[in-house]
């Protein structure tokens, strides 16, 4: 929020200023009202700044504006879809009457703003009835503004003693009538006028409505009411008429009360179905058994109506959009109905007095303030790149859409619009910041603000020499560096994974560039993985091992593998195989290695026999002199190791069997390895063997080449 | 049946607020701002232990937005038909204390058992990674 400088002033000064203003305004006949200078009424200035704060040109998203409920449609010349939102002049004009009424207890304003249009917005009359002390409408830094009525003035109406008791025992404040229905939507948001009259909107009017009373409207009246509502806009006169009609048959009930009540209710909305598709209406309150059949068929006739689609709100999910419109509808109708008592203000006031009596704190927040907050909330929904900002939502609803599309293809039902669930992007606007310039000043002021921050501290990064640090610190730093590398590589990976989508969205000319970028990023990733070494050789696996020791690093490698070229992938595989026992030891707690199996198997599929042989060599650490082979033992005892070994062996077997030239078998290093490997396998006790993820089927045939039947059986049992 | 709850309508309905430290507050929501700072009137802190609950009247609460987990309107019809049983404040506080103690005991035993087996659950703050 902005810090208004005037608020720092002493309240006395503000008071004096107000007094001046009063004199000035009485003197001038004509228009100072529109120009708000800083010395003007503090509330106005603040309000103006508030409005300016929010109403920027970039924020003229009609969706946001629709969230704001004070801008009722009756106000504007063009109707909802006009471009009035663009002109601040109009908005100021609208804002005017609001302000005039928010300061009821300060009569100064009535003088200060003489030519405010005669208040068309009756709903803001409520504040005039509140005798609650005036509040500032937003957080004010500094002293509160002057109050004409000092704080702590009790409300005009005598407080109901019932209420004060309830401060201590916070039970629900209102005595509720037996049928409790707020905003009932039994007929899909449309209510029969009878029901309207009967439903106690208990939150606002706590008066217990005698359940026995059920006003009867003639068909004509009902038709009028519904007919009026059909257009979606209840004209005030219509409502007043209906209210009058409603009032008459009930001599026992205070007609004014009823009018007020009717005003509070939700008159039939125009064709918006209730949230979640209006399931079959819940039964109307039991006290009016005779009414449901009446309005029912009537409403059915009126039901098919074109939905007033607000195309601007398509970036919202349809459910959210419905919510939004429902809310607006409710509030608008509330306001409108309050408008409706043009000819009968007295009645309205009394009903509001009732409301105040029951709950004097109910309207602490002005509608304007609520709109402000909801506007901010809506602003947050604007997005320049929905895939970036709201990835999971987008993907989830894409999946849903695909599902429903698939179903539709089978079902042959009506074609729904497919574009419903796509969030349109708000165009990214370039903002060039222009520093504040004052006219008539000499030179430029250096004003430091959010857009133009001033450097406060000169921070210089100094790296310490190696000698100073202890061994522990070095280790920690190295680990941290690895973590940073992993994170950087991850961002690259996410980018690369996203290229497919971008490719589809981009233009023809841009595509080669995109591909180039993608390739480059892949190379970068690989370099990150293996450690950038200037020479051709990659002498040490150290860097790679560091990454593989960390859980996230292993997952990263698994995700990167599909993007690497076969040679690079093979390189990674070999490095893993070479150091497998070490990795196994490190993985004891995390147990993440098996996630690598699938990408490894994909890679294996493309490898030639020579590589596979080397791989086996690395894995098993054969040939080796000496009886013990801890490397192989470790591999065999680990689930991942064993599974990998099997995969490799199976691949080798595939290659062997597919090769036409069988003479090579003799000289093949593969064969030698196999012989050794089988010997080892035989030697190891069965209990020590781990359980592999999957045992490839051709292993037996593999081994059958190299061992005789007896041993084969033995192997079989082991595996 | 009920309309779509809209905290910004600020109807004088009771609201339930869940805070980050696990407290449940029930009161009339009077004011809200863009940070979800809340002003609650006639607030009651409700403590739940098992099937019992107890209400402590607290008065007016101003809650800083970052501590709010969720906020919802209370449907007053449904409020009355719960299987939960309301008890006095002293009783519920006692129950809470007992529950807390039991939890601490079991936690201690668990850590002990793990230690004996040579395992350890690393403390969250010593982990560098996610």
Layout of strands and helices, then pairs:
The complex is a heterodimer of chains A (719) and B (130).
Chain A (H helix, E strand, L loop, with lengths): L10 H17 L14 H13 L7 H6 L20 H15 L5 H5 L12 H5 L31 H8 L24 H6 L20 H12 L5 H12 L7 H10 L30 H8 L15 H22 L5 H14 L8 H13 L6 H4 L1 H21 L59 H35 L5 H20 L11 H8 L1 H10 L5 H13 L1 H7 L10 H9 L3 H12 L9 H8 L1 H20 L5 H4 L1 H15 L15 H8 L2 H10 L1
Helix pairs in contact in A: 9-10, 9-12, 10-11, 11-13, 11-14, 18-19, 18-21, 20-21, 22-25, 24-27, 25-27, 25-29, 26-27
Chain B lengths: L13 E6 L4 E9 L5 E12 L2 E12 L4 E6 L2 H5 L4 E2 L2 H28 L14
Parallel strand pairs in B: 4-6
Antiparallel strand pairs in B: 1-2, 1-5, 2-3, 3-4
Explained architecture:
The complex is a heterodimer of chains A (719) and B (130). Chain A is mainly α and 719 residues long. Among the domains of chain A are: 469-564, no CATH class; 566-718, no CATH class. Helices cover 51% and strands 0% of the residues of chain A. Chain A has 31 helices and no strands. In chain A, α11 packs across α14 (345-358). The longest helix of chain A is centred in the last third of the chain and has 35 residues, at 471-505. Chain A starts with 10 loop residues before the first helix and ends with a helix. In chain B, 25% of the residues lie in helices and 36% in strands. Chain B contains two helices and six strands; from the N terminus they run βββββαβα. Chain B has helices at residues 76-80, 89-116; strands spanning 14-19, 24-32, 38-49, 52-63, 68-73, 85-86. A six-stranded mixed beta sheet of chain B has the order 5-1-2-3-4-6. The model of chain B has no long low-confidence stretch (mean pLDDT 86). The interface between A and B is large, with 45 and 32 residues.
